[in-house]
Amino acid sequence: MAGTFIPINLDHDKYDRASREGFIKKLKGDLIKYRNDRLEFYEKLRDKNNADSLRWWMGILAVVATIFSAIAAGLRVSTVSLSAKQSIFSIPADKFDLIFFGIALLAFAVLSGLAVYDRMNDFSTAYFRHNLMAEAIRDLWTPLEFELFKELKKQEKDSPVSDSEFEHLMKTASAFCVGLNKLTSEELSDFKSEFIQSMKDLDTLASKGLKDSTAELENAVKAHKVDADKAKEEVNKAKKAAEEAAKKAEQAAQAAREAAEAATKPGYLNITVKGDYDSKLTIKVNGKEHSKVEGKNFSIGDLKQGIIRLELIAKKGDKIITYDKYLTMTAGLQNEEVTLT
Questions:
Q1: Which of 67, 106, 183, 336 is 20 to 30 A (C-alpha) from 33?
Q2: Please, which residues have CB within 8 angstroms of residue 15's CB and are 6 or more apart in sequence?
Q3: Assign residue 46 a region: left if phi > 0, alpha if psi is -120 to 50, beta otherwise?
C-alpha cells in the first residue's frame, strides 16, 4: 500500500556483492519501489481533488450571474413606461426584471458558497501542493538515476563491488531516502498549517453567521410587527439555536486543533544496548549528531513524529561497531533494543 509512513525495506539476502550489475540493479529496483510508493500516494490525492471541476462550475456560475444581472438591468429600463396591469408571459411587466435579478442572486449565492467550500477544504492549495510534491520527487530522483548509471558503467558488469564502492552506493541511496522523507515531512507541515487555518476560518464564519443571522431575524420580526413578547421568545430561541450551532462548530474546531497538535508532539526513545563497547556512544538522528552517552540504558527526546534514521557508533578495542536502522516515531515513549555490530 502506497503511503508516507512506510520506510524502505532492503532485503539483505538478495544482495550479492560478487556482481556489480546485479547489486546495482537490485538496489535501484528497491529505490524505485520506494519512490513510486510516495509518488503514487500524491498522484492519487491529486486525482481525487475537485479543484479543476470546482473552478469550471464557478466560472459558469459567474458568467450566468453576470448575464442575468445585465438582462435584469436592461428590463428595468425598458419596462419603466409599462403599467403594472400590463404583463409579459402572464407576469406583471413591472416585476419581470425581478425574476432575472433573482436568478442572478441565486447564481452569485451558489458561487460564493463554492468559494467558501474550496477555501475551507483547501482544494486549490492541496492540488498545487500535490503537483509540487510529484515534481520535487522527480527532481530528487534525476541525479540519483545518473549516479547509478555512472556506477554501473564504471567497470565490467561481472566485477565484484569493492568496499569503497559499496560505501558510496549506500550513502547515495541513503541520501535519496532521507531527502524523500524530508519532502514528505515538509508537505505534512504545510498541510497542518492549512488545516488549522481553515478551522480558524470556519470559527470566524460561524461567529459572523451567528451575528448576521440574529440581526436579520430581529429586523424581520420588527418588519412584520409581530407581538413583542412572541418576537422576543422567537429571537431568544434563534439565538440559543445559533449559539449551540456555534458551540458545536467551536468544539469541532477545537477537536481538530487538538488532533493537529497531537500530530506534532515529540517522541522519546528509551534505548537499551546489548553487548559491550569501550568508548563513548555517539548517537546520530537523520545523519546529524544528537549526543554522546555512556552506559547501556539511556533516553533521547524531542524527536519528530514520522520516519527517522537512528545511528549508534562506538569502539570495541580497535574496531568501530555501529547500529543503523530506520524507525517510525510516534508521540510519547518508545523502547528500542539495539545490538552494535
A1: 336
A2: 23, 26, 27
A3: alpha
pLDDT in tens, 32-44: 887 888 878 777 7
For every residue of 221-244, DSSP letters joined together read: HHHTT--HHHHHHHHHHHHHHHHH
d(CA 226, CA 229): 9
| CA–CA separation, 96 and 68 (whole Å) | 12
C-alpha–C-alpha distance, residues 332 and 322, integer Å: 26
Q: How far is residue 263's CA from residue 189's CA, in Å, rounded to a whole number?
A: 10
275-278 long-range contacts, Cβ below 8 Å, gap at least 24? Answer: 275/321, 275/339, 275/340, 276/316, 277/314, 277/315, 277/316, 277/321, 277/340, 278/314, 278/315, 278/316, 278/317
Grid coordinates in use for 179? 531527502
Which helix (H) or strand (E) covers residue 318, if one does?
Answer: none
Please give the grid coordinates belonging to residue 211. Answer: 451575528
Q: What is the pLDDT of residues 80-104, one digit of tens each?
A: 545 445 555 565 556 667 777 888 8
- DSSP state, residue 13: G
- For the domain bounded by 267-339, which CATH number is listed? 2.60.40.10
State the Cα–Cα distance between residues 24 and 165, nearest whole angstrom. Answer: 10
Q: What is the pTM of this model?
A: 0.41
3-state DSSP percent of the chain in helix, strand and coil, to 5: 65, 20, 20
